[in-house]
């Protein structure tokens, strides 16, 4: 075989190995402009990053945070308007109902359940949909306007659980970080959304101002216990609904990647 | 236009609307046998169900459970051997490291961190891979054989966090549900996997038998506190590592859909 033929064969072998055969991946060439593949890779990497971010948020590993990371805003939007959020809400309500059914309610009205309101019984997704899906710093003024509209719809699995607990004989307490000045609008909204016959709606009073939610809510649960109730269960979308003292026998954490309350 | 032409146009319009235009979805016809589409729909529905199940497990909403639901075994296998588990472990370790760096370690050796071992520092995924990925009831006998092999590899983000905490000056306690009879194998395994210089390895002694992990671990954290240490952080894959009393100032929940320990 002629020398030129060997050279050609060698060239074919080298070229077949592709352009990456000797280039360390760290200096691998990337196309100058976005290609479809590139966009796909970035989307996949964003999804992995944002799924992991959501894990740390829902387990309270992330600690305090003020807004959804910029690269996760689309992820949060898709999640909160999609099947998974709905399915998770159903799953948590099913866990709570199963637990509640196994409790022998005494019938003396002392068996209690504590519900948070926002993102637990009422959904503010409509508000967050026009306010950047958690990407903006919380704005008290515009949120108060939304509260005054009284248009937050019920979270359906929450409403179903609420009604089943009532049938089972539980006394229901609503414990919210909303203020006394929002009590009337909140009551109206709850009623429009289908909630009725709660024992007490507990809001932040003047003396509760400035307290972290976990402290305010623990103090109020303590008052409920001191009044003779047994808090069997507690439902909330924030860990500050479910941590601290005077805890319920079991707590049910609902998903919420939109905002964090200490 | 002739009548027949109008009829044909109407037919085209009706057929374009597809076969579902007037059939309520609840009585929609399904193919008798699995088609590719059907398998795809089932896969999607399993994924939704199992993602939601995993949410309830990782937030402790599910309460006690003994094995992965049958329809989620493939899901758990894909998750635990895939990118997401690795990415979540990295994210939690990053949260913990960020928190630890912000603590002004005093230098007197009293600043402490408590680590669980299994699925926190050492990975038993090799064991679970040949034992049904959480689909089988826990078998103490075969798990003990695996422990005696001393071959559990380090969870890399856990090892990196461990080493960084040591550099920062934290005193490290290892607090595990493993028994006194497993102490030697556990020490060897930890050392082979790259862990060194822990302050104390706390295992279940004779007087701890039968206690729920959350009680045993709370009692041991209390002893650490009573000895003058401040437990700044605690890392564990089970809520029973992170609940009860004598809690760390911040707790870091690692993912684990393979098993539940009360």
UniProtKB/TrEMBL annotation, chains A, B:
Alphabetically ordered keywords of this record: Glycoprotein, Signal
Matches recorded under Gene3D superfamilies: HAD superfamily/HAD-like (3.40.50.1000)
Protein name: Large subunit ribosomal protein L10e
SUPFAM superfamilies, A to Z: HAD-like (SSF56784)
Entries under InterPro entries matching the protein: Acid_phosphat_B-like, Acid_phosphatase_pln, APS1/VSP, HAD-like_sf, HAD_sf
Family: Belongs to the APS1/VSP family.
Short name of any one Pfam family annotated for the protein: Acid_phosphat_B
Gene Ontology MF annotations: acid phosphatase activity
Keyword set includes Membrane: no
NCBIfam families from the UniProt entry: plant-AP
Chain segments annotated as coiled-coil in the UniProt record: none
Keyword Glycoprotein: yes
Signal peptide interval: 1-22
Superkingdom in the source lineage: Eukaryota
């Amino acid at each position: 075989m002629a020398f030129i033929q060997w050279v050609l064969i060698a060239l074919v072998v080298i070229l077949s190995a592709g352009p990456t055969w000797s280039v360390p991946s760290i200096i691998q060439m990337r196309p100058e402009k976005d290609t479809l593949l590139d966009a796909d890779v970035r989307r996949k990497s964003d999804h992995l990053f944002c799924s992991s971010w959501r894990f740390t948020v829902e387990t309270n590993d992330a600690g305090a945070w003020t807004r959804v990371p910029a690269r996760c805003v689309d992820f949060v939007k898709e999640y909160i308007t999609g099947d998974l959020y709905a399915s998770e809400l159903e799953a948590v309500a099913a866990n709570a109902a199963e637990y509640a059914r196994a409790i022998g309610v005494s019938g003396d009205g002392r068996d209690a359940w504590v519900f948070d309101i926002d993102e637990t019984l009422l959904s503010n997704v409509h508000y967050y949909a026009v306010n950047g899906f958690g990407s903006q710093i919380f704005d008290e003024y515009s949120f108060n306007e939304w509260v005054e509209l009284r248009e937050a719809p019920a979270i359906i699995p929450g409403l179903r659980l609420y009604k089943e607990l009532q049938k089972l004989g539980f006394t229901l307490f609503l414990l919210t970080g909303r203020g006394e000045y929002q009590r009337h609008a909140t009551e109206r909204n709850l009623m429009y959304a289908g909630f009725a016959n709660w024992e007490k709606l507990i809001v932040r009073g003047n003396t509760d101002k400035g307290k972290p939610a976990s402290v305010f809510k623990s103090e109020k649960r303590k008052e409920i216990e001191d009044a003779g109730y047994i808090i069997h269960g507690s439902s909330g979308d924030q860990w500050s609904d479910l941590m601290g003292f005077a805890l319920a026998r079991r707590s049910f954490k609902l998903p919420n990647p939109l905002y964090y309350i200490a």
